[in-house]
Every structure is written in structure tokens, then in C-alpha cells.
Design brief:
By secondary structure, the protein is mainly α. It has helices spanning 3-22, 24-27, 31-36, 43-54, 59-69, 76-79, 82-99, 107-111, 114-153, 157-205, 209-216, 240-254, 262-269, 274-306, 327-335, 340-376, 382-404, 410-420, 425-433, 439-463, 469-490, 496-506, 513-516, 525-551, 554-577, and strands at residues 313-316, 319-322.
Length: 578
């Protein structure tokens, strides 16, 4: 890193900090302004903020590891979640906006009642806002940024972790959500430009897209869909295609964010109205899956030719392994000239800060609104709450830093979290669809998730079930259901007054006949589900098509693009008729 490179990085960091400082007064008027921007966000700003949060310093490394270890089809672990995020567009965006809560956790005492609901709200504030949040920040954005800085600057592990966390905590504390979303827009553009620049240099280094495709055509790396199992495969479910089926059949609806999730919900409830909420998540899906996938995948494919596996050997606890995730930042030092290298390192700061700032603000909203204000001090002034809110990001940053010192892999942590939360998603879905779900349903599902996950490794061989992602996810879903479903039926339902009030306010779909007598709904949910199916196809076709056009087979890629055009046309016509 030259003086020019460091000057570019410094300029970026100064601009990000200035945005926070300039918005300090706006964010400091109330908790509504600090955590939900007075509920006045437009769809573009809210959606860009969501995708900037998902575009973290760890994400290019995660995608690179998937592509280098499996091929393009390895990215389906990310792409498959688009099925649920598109469901949020057409169903859950409007429900969350109608709920008019400040946080996802606040929904607990809107949907349920009694001491169990109060306990669940406080527990989730700590569980998701503190423990889960610190873990996620530590193992994903901070670990990713640490690897980038170590590869590009020579920083030590400690310098890289502490240096990148402090800046994010400072401007998040000052500016609240207003500063977060505005810096997110600036940072997303910078981060996306950096990804495209590195992709161009990487493809040029291997001789162009045609050469990249030609040199990898006899390898498994270009396949977008995993290969079908051969006839002699003893266990079809434990093949790459079986893994793929597990993602498409179970993973997307079984994970914790199947109805939107905390960070997305914060942006949805901050929008001006239901239409802006829906459009914000639609824009997020397009930018998240279609726009940002191809530069990372193309760069990862080029890295296979440019960086042999033996050059990525690393050691953890005296055990050697190939750290594919380091290939992406290593290309920065290998290929980029002075000045451009600084732009790329700054783009990683952009991706990192957009995620860290959101996670800090979101976690603070849980701890303040659903913890401190709800259970510790209910009568303090708005000024007092804002002071506590501004201190919480530093507390959370310290916890995330401790986690980062103990973690070395982004992809392993990603898979672990998806597996751990696989039993919670069904309850989160059903709380909107079935009046009988009560707070004990959620408590039982959360409590059972970790024991079921730990039990799985021993139970599957004992049961004689074959290994494979489909079986593992099914075990998590069924195992937790065998706990939460009996608990639901054996405990008292939510009181009638609360259910009727919730239904009248949110008007959800599903099994609410007993409650809907008092407040009938006129929503055309069948049309919404049809839009979801068409939109999901269009989204995935728009994601896959351009990648196949670039690296082959091009004819198949153009078919996907044509299908995408038809899908978006049908969807647009349906939405305009609504």
C-alpha cells in the first residue's frame, strides 16, 4: 500500500465519519428518529441500505470460498434464500409495515400477551440483539475485513480487528439510522464499483472471458446446477444434487429470517408506507442477487487459474487447511496498480462499515427498546434513552471484537448459523398464519434448536438415516417441531382480545377464521402468492442468465435471460392490476 492508496482509504473514512457527524442533530431528536428515521424512508434508500448491509467485507470472501471449493453451484447456499426474501416482498413487507413496531422483537407483545410474552420479548432482546448479534459481527464482517487488511496492508491480526471496528462504532453512535442509511448508499456504490474493477482486472489477467471459460470448461467449476447423481450412487441425498435439493426444499423457509428478519424489518418499518416497504425489498433482491453476484463469481473463477491451492495453505490450532477465502484479497495485491489498490481497500471498508453500522444500530434498538426501556427503566426521559442508545454500539462492538479474535473462517460460521436457526423459521412463519401459535411456541423452538443440533450427529447414525443436507435439515425441523408443537397445543392460547386487536391491525393471511369474524379482511393473498412465484423465477433467471452468458454455456444463458424478461413482464402486469 502506497501513500496514494492510503490517502484514498483515508478520504473514504473521513467522508463516512463526516456523514455521521453532520446527522448527529437529526438523529438526536427522538428514539423514532434514531432507530427508524421517523418512518419516512423512501424505497430506494431503504432497499439500498438493506443490500449494503448484506454486502459485507466477508461476502466476497464467502462467495470465493464457495466457488473455489465447489464451483458456481456452491453459491446456491446464498441464492436459495432469495425464495424467502421474495416472499417478504409480496407478503411480509406489508404485514410488518402495518404492525408499526420499532423492532422485530416488539412484535412479541403485539402478537402475544401475558408474562410469557414479556419474558420472550426480554429474552429475544438479549439473545438476538446481544449474543447472536455479537457472534454474527465477529465471525462475518470483522473476520472478513481482518483477512483483507492482513493480505493487503500487512496489519497484524489485532491491529486489523481493532482499527476497523472503532471507526464503525463512532459514526454509528453519532448518527443513528439516518446516518447508517445515507452512508450505506454511498458505501454500496463504492463497494460495487470496487467489485467490478477487480473482476475486470482478474478476467484480463487470465486472457479474457473466452479464455476463462475455455480453460475451465473441462472442470466442474462452471456448472450452475450441481451434477445429477449417477446410477451407482448409494446415497443420492449425500451428493451435491442432494445438497441442492435440501436448500430448495427446506432451507429457505426454515431459517430465522424467513419472514424478513431483524435488519430487514427495521428498514421496512422505517419506510413511508406499504408500497415503499414492498419496493424496498424488491430492489434489495435485484441488487443483492442479480447485480452483485456476477463480479464476485467471475473473480473467484479467475482466482482458480491465478492462485494455486498450495499458495493458500493456512494453519489453525496446528491443523493445516486451504483458506480459499484469502484468494479474493490476494488478487488485490497481485493485480492492481497503485491508486486502484487503494480504491479496492476502501471498497472493502465501505462493505464492512455498512454492515457493522447496521448491526450495531439494530442490536442497540433491541437492547434499548425491548430490554432497557421495557424492563429496567420505563419512565426515563427521551434524552436519557438517547444517551443509552449512543453508548450501546460501543458495548456491542467490544463483544463482537472478542468473538473475532476466536474465529478464522467465514463460510463455516455461515453454515453453522443456517443450521442452528433451521428449526425456528416454521414458528416465525406460523405466528402470522395461525392464531393458535403462542409465546411458548417460540420459547420451545429457540430452546430446542441447540440441543437438537448437537444431538443430530449422534442421532442420524443411530436412526439409520443417511447423511446429507436434506436429512440434516429435516432432522432439525422435525426435531424442533416435536418440541414446540406439543408445547403449543398443551399451553393456553393467546387471549381473545389480543388476537382480535392484532388481526384488526395487521390483517394477516392464513387460519384466523375464529378471530377474523370481528375484523374481516379483503386481501387477495392468492394473487400475492402468484406474484411471489413469478417474481422468484424472474429473480433467479436474472441472476443465472448473465453469468452463463459470460462464462458459458452462452446459449443456455440467453434462454435464462429471455425467461427473466418474460417473468418480469408478467409480474409488472400483475402488480399494475393490483
Amino acid at each position: 500500500m502506497s501513500v496514494v492508496d492510503w490517502s484514498i482509504v483515508a478520504a473514504f473514512c473521513v467522508i463516512s465519519a463526516l456523514i455521521g457527524i453532520l446527522l448527529q442533530r437529526v438523529a438526536g431528536t427522538s428514539l423514532e428518529s434514531y432507530f427508524v428515521s421517523n418512518r419516512t424512508l423512501g424505497w430506494w434508500l431503504a432497499g439500498t441500505s438493506i443490500v449494503a448491509t448484506a454486502f459485507s467485507s466477508d461476502t466476497p470472501l464467502l462467495i470465493t470460498g464457495m466457488v473455489r471449493s465447489k464451483g458456481i453451484w456452491g453459491v446456491w447456499e446464498v441464492w436459495a434464500l432469495g425464495i424467502s426474501t421474495m416472499l417478504t416482498v409480496f407478503v411480509f413487507a406489508k404485514l410488518w409495515k402495518r404492525a408499526n413496531v420499532m423492532t422485530e422483537v416488539e412484535l412479541v407483545e403485539l402478537r402475544y400477551s401475558g408474562r410469557a410474552a414479556a419474558f420472550l420479548r426480554g429474552f429475544k432482546a438479549l439473545y438476538w440483539g446481544l449474543f447472536y448479534n455479537c457472534y454474527v459481527m465477529g465471525v462475518w464482517p470483522i473476520t472478513g475485513m481482518r483477512k483483507v487488511l492482513q493480505e493487503t496492508t500487512g496489519f497484524t491480526r489485532e491491529e486489523a480487528i481493532i482499527g476497523c471496528v472503532v471507526l464503525g462504532a463512532i459514526y454509528t453512535s453519532l448518527s443513528g439510522l439516518w446516518g447508517v442509511v445515507l452512508t450505506d448508499a454511498f458505501q454500496f456504490i463504492w463497494a460495487m464499483a470496487g467489485a467490478v474493477i477487480l473482476a475486470v482486472y482478474a478476467v484480463h489477467a487470465v486472457g479474457g472471458l473466452h479464455a476463462l471459460s475455455h480453460r475451465l470448461q473441462d472442470t466442474p467449476f462452471l456448472a450452475v446446477i450441481p451434477p445429477l447423481p449417477s446410477a451407482h450412487e448409494a446415497n443420492v441425498l449425500n451428493t451435491p444434487f442432494g445438497w441442492f435439493l435440501g436448500l430448495l426444499l427446506i432451507q429457505w423457509w426454515a431459517w430465522k429470517n424467513t419472514d424478513g428478519g431483524g435488519v430487514v424489518v427495521q428498514r421496512l418499518v422505517s419506510c413511508k408506507n406499504e408500497r415503499h416497504a414492498m419496493l424496498s425489498v424488491l430492489w434489495f433482491n435485484i441488487a443483492h442477487y442479480c447485480l452483485r453476484s456476477w463480479p464476485w463469481i467471475v473473480t473467484a473463477l479467475a482466482s482458480i487459474l491465478l492462485i494455486p491451492n498450495q499458495e493458500l495453505l493456512s494453519t489453525v490450532n496446528h491443523t493445516p487447511f486451504i483458506d480459499h477465502e484469502r484468494a479474493y484479497p490476494r488478487l488485490i495485491t497481485m493485480l492492481l496498480p497503485t491508486g486502484v489498490r487503494g480504491v479496492l481497500v476502501a471498497s472493502f471498508f465501505a462493505a464492512f462499515l455498512s454492515t457493522l453500522s447496521t448491526q450495531l444500530n439494530w442490536g442497540a434498538s433491541y437492547l434499548l427498546n425491548d430490554g432497557y426501556k421495557r424492563f429496567v427503566n420505563r419512565t426515563a426521559s427521551e434524552r436519557h434513552y438517547l444517551f443509552i442508545a449512543r453508548m450501546l454500539p460501543f458495548f456491542l462492538a467490544a463483544g463482537a471484537t472478542m468473538v473475532a479474535f476466536m474465529n478464522d473462517s467465514v463460510s463455516a460460521s455461515y453454515t453453522t448459523i443456517l443450521n442452528l436457526t433451521a428449526g425456528v423459521g416454521p414458528v416465525y412463519l406460523l405466528r402470522w398464519l395461525w392464531w393458535r401459535i403462542n409465546p411458548w411456541s417460540e420459547i420451545a423452538a429457540i430452546a430446542a434448536s441447540l440441543p437438537i443440533l448437537l444431538l443430530r450427529a449422534h442421532a442420524l447414525p443411530w436412526l439409520g438415516w443417511p447423511p446429507g443436507l436434506v436429512v440434516e435439515l429435516a432432522f432439525m425441523v422435525v426435531g424442533t417441531a416435536l418440541v414446540w408443537l406439543p408445547v403449543t397445543l398443551l399451553t393456553s392460547p393467546v387471549d381473545w382480545a389480543t388476537l382480535k386487536q392484532f388481526y384488526a391491525r395487521v390483517r394477516p393471511p392464513g387460519w384466523w377464521r375464529e378471530v377474523a369474524v370481528a375484523a374481516p379482511a379483503s386481501e387477495h393473498w392468492g394473487r400475492s402468492l402468484g406474484q411471489w412465484l413469478v417474481g422468484t423465477f424472474a429473480l433467479l433467471a436474472t441472476t443465472i442468465g448473465p453469468i452463463e452468458v459470460m462464462v458459458g454455456p452462452a446459449a443456455q444463458g440467453w434462454l435464462w435471460c429471455a425467461g427473466a424478461a418474460v417473468g418480469w413482464t408478467v409480474l409488472l402486469a400483475s402488480v399494475l392490476r393490483t
